[in-house]
Amino acid sequence: MKIGVLPYAELEVPMLTPYVTVDADVLDANLRSMAERAAARGLALRPHAKTHKSPEIARRQLALGATGLTVATVSEAEVFRDAGDVFIAYPIWPSPEQTARLRALTGQVNLRVGVDSAESAEALGRAVPGLEVLVEVDSGHHRSGVAPEAAGAVAVAADKAGLTVRGVFTFPGHAYGPGRQSLAVADESAALSEAAAALTAHGLDASVRSGGSTPTAGLAGGTLTEMRPGVYVFGDAQQVELGTCGWDQVALTVTATVVSRSGQRFIVDAGSKVLGADQQAWATGGGRLLDCPEARITALSEHHATVVLPDGHDVPSLGERLRVVPNHVCATVNLADELIVVTGGEVVDRWPVTARGANT
Fold it and tell me: Which of 79, 40, 45 has the alpha carbon at shortest distance from 65?
């Protein structure tokens, strides 16, 4: 079996590899599918922009009915303030520098942030009175967030500090593993239900119950009112291996050149500084080849990927360009300056990764 040649290999694209390519036809299909899924379940869709970091993609999401955007940092909120409604899904500590930025944002966008302690709630209340907050709950991922039964106390502290409590949120990140999705959804639903009840018992607003992720989007429902998937826009090798999407739903690839070959092994010029280094213990390698999923990336160095083909597959020629699917697309996008946009097999645009490096 011979690996397919890039359909746009002869078109006007960057002469130097590696570069990041987005198939806009696949992207738009992914955006429509998630918007329809959320609408069918009666859920607000607030996609996580940390995946794409692109105002162009954000505009497409909002045009399809997204109620706003989720971001990971204050600087991402600044980039996406034109969305009109932004949730920073993170327990912010309001340093003097962050306070000034948060105050500026409240005059530009409907801003909501996460809080998971009485101390940070009190500090936020002093820094930005009236700021809208959601109490973060740990539903099993064991990162930030309080135990569900403690959400009421945090919400009370936030209310007393002059913040506006709107509900609770969580991230079911423990869904990132084979066969874990159903358990993560059940944990999420139980945690948000208990946390919301704790807020209601204190007479506080629990109307927003926000959660979800790309691996759990197909099962979302229950107590949720809002879902926040991110990776669905592009897909990646992790999502394919989790069964979240198929290869035909992968919209982003890294175009790389074969620079060395030996037997059934060859080397392409895209390493961890382009693909990212994320590799879960259950992953089959450091990424995959879109046109030959049977191949395995067995090693990543900074500027090279080692690919091994099964017996019977023709090894690509030196100089041939291939499409590499990264394991974790969020990391790949954050390493790129621009996205080369393809539609109908033709290069049609270049989108800057505007929020690249917006980590503060």
Answer: 45
H/E stretch holding 33? helix 24-40
Residue 266, SS3 per DSSP:
strand
Taking the whole predicted model, whether its pTM rises above 0.90 is answered as yes
The C-alpha atoms of residue 329 and residue 76 are separated, in whole angstroms, by 17
Distances, alpha carbon 276 to alpha carbons 33, 53, 301, in Å: 27, 16, 10
Which residue matches tokens 């005059």?
A: 107
Give me 203's structure tokens: 């007479």
Phi (first) and psi of residue 332, to 5 degrees = -60, -45
Model confidence over 257-307: pLDDT tens digits? 999 999 999 999 999 999 999 999 999 999 999 999 999 999 999 999 999
* Model pLDDT, residue 221: 83
Q: Give residue-wise pLDDT tens across range 152-192.
A: 999 999 999 999 999 999 999 999 999 999 999 999 999 99
Q: DSSP code of 185? A: H
Q: Phi first, then psi: what are they for 347, rounded to 5°?
A: -75, 125
Q: What b-and-e string marks burial along 17-42, b requiring 16 or more CB atoms within 10 Å of the CB?
A: bbbbbbbbebbbebbeebbebbeeee
Residues 44-92 have pLDDT tens digits of: 999 999 999 999 999 999 999 999 999 999 999 999 999 999 999 999 9
Return the residue matching tokens 């940390």. 50
- Other beta carbons within 10 Å of 190: 15
Residue type for 95, please? S
User: Rg of the chain's alpha carbons, rounded to an integer?
Assistant: 22
Phi, psi angles (nearest 5°) of residue 286: -90, 25
Q: Which of 258, 281, 292, 277 is nearest to 326 (CA)?
A: 277
Specify the 3-state DSSP secondary structure of 91. Answer: strand
Residue ranges of alpha helices (H) inside 107-206 are 118-127, 151-160, 181-201
At residue 11, does pLDDT exceed 80?
no
* DSSP β-bridge partners for residue 195: none
In one-letter notation, the amino acid at residue 117 is S
Cβ neighbours for 105, distance < 8 A, ≥ 6 positions apart:
74, 77, 78, 81, 86, 111
